[in-house]
Structure formats: structure tokens, C-alpha cells
Amino acid sequence: MLEIGKLxxxxxxxxxxxxxxxAPAALTLLKIxxxxxxxxxxxxxxxxxxxxxxLVRLSGNSIPFILFTGRGREEVVIxxxxxxxxxxxxxxxxxxxxxxELSHKIRQAVIQKETEIALSNSxxxxxxxxxxxxxxxxxxxxxxxxIAWNRSIEEMTGIPAADILGxxxxxxxxxxxxxxxxxxxxxxxxxDEKIAGYYSSIFREGNSLSAETNLIHPKGNRIDALxxxxxxxxxxGNVTGAIESIRDITGRKRVxxxxxxxxxxxxxxxxxxxxxxxxxxxxxxLFANSRAxxxxxxxxxxxxEIRLWDLVHPDDRDRLIxxxxxxxxxxxxxxxxxxxxxxxxxxxxxxxFFVDTIMxxxxxAILGIARDITERKKADETVRxxxxxxxLLTTITRHDINNQVLALNGFIALLHEKVPDPALENYxxxxxxxxxxxxxxxxxxxxxxxxxxxxxxxQDIRALVETAATQVPLRTVIVxxxxxxxxxVHADPLAVRVFYNLIENSVRYGGKITTIRFSLEECxxxxxxxxxxxxxxxxxxxxERIFEWxxxxxxxxxxxxxxEILGITGITxxxxxxxxxxxxxxxxVPPGSFRT
Length: 596
Description:
alpha+beta, Rossmann fold, Beta-Lactamase, 5 domains, five-stranded antiparallel sheet, 17 helices
């Protein structure tokens, strides 16, 4: 039987057949060689075909198994099929037909097994793909039974696949909504009106359905989710189930909300600011706020279609175009400038411009702020005109008073000669001193009128002290200048008057003074200029009063003027000496007003 079967099967060239006479020997052979199918008799020595089949299947081998026997009992057939036999074929009859049928059964069994393996591999690959998806994903069949539950949805819900696969009756809705109810996967073929009862922001793409919803997160927090569902089809185009993916978009929603709030704040600031804000590239205006329309007189739509340079006064146009060209070629250009703007009615408006290079819509552009200073310039010109008139008036007045003081001094001198009465001597002295104070006050008003009249300048501190020391009658007092060279302050041109006042006050009011010393303390871009003497010092109750207008033994104006001069550029001065041990003035120069 073995020899005949081998001959018949191999003669077609489609089979290669090994024969063996016992099931135990066959089990040994299966361990060392791979076969596509087994054909076994039922009645055999040592072990029958059913026992052989059981041991093959217990070893985990799913090889196609055909029972080929002369036994025709129904119980044998049933047991063989129950134990995993693929086919049963009874011996007997015409040999050609019998072995033709056997070869057919073998081919059918092998093809069926290959199909099962391919299907199993395909299902495994599909399961791997679903598990690999970053979004929580599950699938159901047409009966609503869960057939897939990936790792992401395990993490989201805390429910392992083993606990939910094979379950139906909306079991999959409980982790998300807390109860059994239809969810998007159940509604893919329903009309939008019905879906709207469960979800918002619904949109379709082919057979796919997407929506946004708010879910109960298994960990206690509610999440915003983007849900997408689609039907599953077989090769015949028939629906076999549906699949749904759930993406947590809570973070994205928060970012979008924060972006909306930021954009709203930006819009409120940009649209309500008093200045015109605009962005341009080349000569094209890319953005302009409502104030830009107010300033130019053009409606927003027209403004966006106008060449930028057409809004600039012809006399200023070339200067601005050249500045724009330089900024885009990397050259250093001012970020602030003034120019005239032409309105829709042809009126010229003076504006201050503040510009910077930015990235806008993926390319470099210019961000500009335009401030209308037309009225301010008119006001400034009015003030300048008034100041010129006032300066002329004070100059004439000072000149006239000085002439009267000169005449008064002359008459007092003549009167003193005419009336040489010792009893009147003190009166002559007091009158002469009063006249001197009047003259000094007039000179002070001349100095004060120039404070802030010109722009601050960088001035060498050591040179300022040297100059001031040459202008004061020092008598026997020595000025020690320990200020290092090359240190400069940004101050009003009258800064030399400050050091003059300090030296003159020490000499005049310091008592038995021998030295005045200037030194410098530097710290993080700022400095303290120290002026100290070895005189009597200043009483504690007078340390601030000495800077008040009119306080003092002479005019009481020198230190007050000094504080005004220094304050123009943010420099401060105070007295920190010890009474009885000398005066000490500390001049603090902030960063930006000091340099080496």
C-alpha cells in the first residue's frame, strides 16, 4: 500500500513522498524533517492513526493530516475530525480514481493550511499595526463585539485588551462616558442630525466620520478628544465591522485657547494704541492697524493697496528708501527718525518713526510705529519762540539791573567820601554787601538760564575738576585730584560749575581747611565721585537743606543749581560727611551716564 501510494502520487511530479511503517518512527522523522502533509492509515502496529494524530497535534504541529483507511465506521471518522484531521478518505475501489482523489485531498488540505497561515499572519500584522498606532484605537464587528483593542487605548482607559475583547452591548462606551450608549463607531452610517445629538464639530471625509467631544478620563480628569470612525469591509465590499480612533487634544485645545487669548490681547493693544503700527516689505504694506488709517486718511482697504513710499513727503522719500535698503543689506541704520507723511488730502504731517527688522510670514520685513508729532512740533516752536522772547527780556533786564548796581555802587562810594562818619560805617558795609548779593544773584540767573539749554555731552571728570580748581581763589588750600584719567560723565555742559561750587563752598565755609580731595569708586557700569575736605563739616540737620534754594550764608543758590545741573542726566548728589571731621559730597552717576 505504501509503495503503490508513493508511485501514484509521485508520477505527476507534484509530490515528493517518504514512507514509513509505524507511527512512532514517523514522530521521530517529523522532528528532523519538514513536510507539507501527512497521510496515515488507521489500523497500524504499535499505534493507530487516531493516537498518531493526537500526538502530532499535542506537539503543536498543525500540518495537514489525512486519514486514509479501510475502516468505514462512523465513530472513527467523527473522532478523527474532532482530533484535528483535515480529511478522511476510505480505501477501496479502482486505484487510479482512489489515488487521484487522495492527491486532490492532499492539495486541498495544503492550500487550505497555507490560506489559514496567510490569514493568521495577516491578522497578526494587522494587530501589530493597530497596536503601533499612537492614537487609542479599537474595532468591532457587525454585532458590536470588540475585535481589536490596542495598547494606546489600554493606556488611556486602563482596561487591558484581554478584559474587553469579545464583549458587546456598548461595553466599549463605559470607560469614556460612564454608561452604555452608542458612540461614533456605532453612528458611521447615521445622518448628521442624529450624530449631532451626541457630538459637536462633525465632518465627513468619504466613509470616515470625525467629531470632537468631551470625555470622562478614567484617571479622573475630563479630556477634549478628536474621534474618528470608519466602517470595515471585506474583499467583497461587504461591511464586516467598524474601527474608531480617539486622540487626546486637551493640550492642543489649551494652546489654541491661549493663542486666541493672546491674539485678542494683541488685537486690543494694536487697535487701541494711539500710534500707527504697520509692517511692510519692499514698498508693499502687509499690515496696518486702524490708527494708520486715521493718520493717513485712507480707508484700510485702500491703504493696503498704496505704495508705502507714496505716503512719504517727496523731500524725505529718498532718505527713507536709502535707510530701508541699508537695513536689509545688514548695515547699521537708525531705528528712530522723523519724517513728513502725506495724508489722502495732501496735508503734510510730521511724524516720529520707530522701526525694527522682523520675520513676518516666513520672510524678513520691517515693523514700524508712526507717531504724529505735528501738534507737538507746533507747541515746541511756540515754546521756543516764547523762550527766545523771555531770554531777550531777561538779558535786557539783567543788563539794566547791572547798570543800576554799578551806578548805586558809585553813589555809595561818593556818599562814603562825603560823609566820613564812623557811626555810619556799619550801614555803608551792610549796603555794600546787599549790593554784592544783588549782583551775585543776577549772575546766578544768567547761569541758570543756560541749564538744559544745550544737549548733554561726554566730559572728562578729571579735567572738570582741574578746570574748576583754577577758577577758585584757593589761598592756602590744596586740591588733590585722585580721579583716574579717561573717565567720562554724560552731563550738562555746565557740569564744571558743580565742581566749582563744591571747591568754592569748602574754601569759603570749611573753617580751618587744608585739603580738598576728589576720588572715584566704580561699580558695574556706574560710579560715585567723592569730594571730601578736612574742615568743620556740615551739621546733620543741614545735610539736605544745603540743596534748597536760598539756604546758606551767601546767595544760597550754588548747591541747588548743582543738583539741577546733575539731575538733567539722572546724576544725584548728597552729603555724607561727619560733622566736625569734614564735609563729603557723593555724586552718583548711573549706568549709561558713565564710561571709560
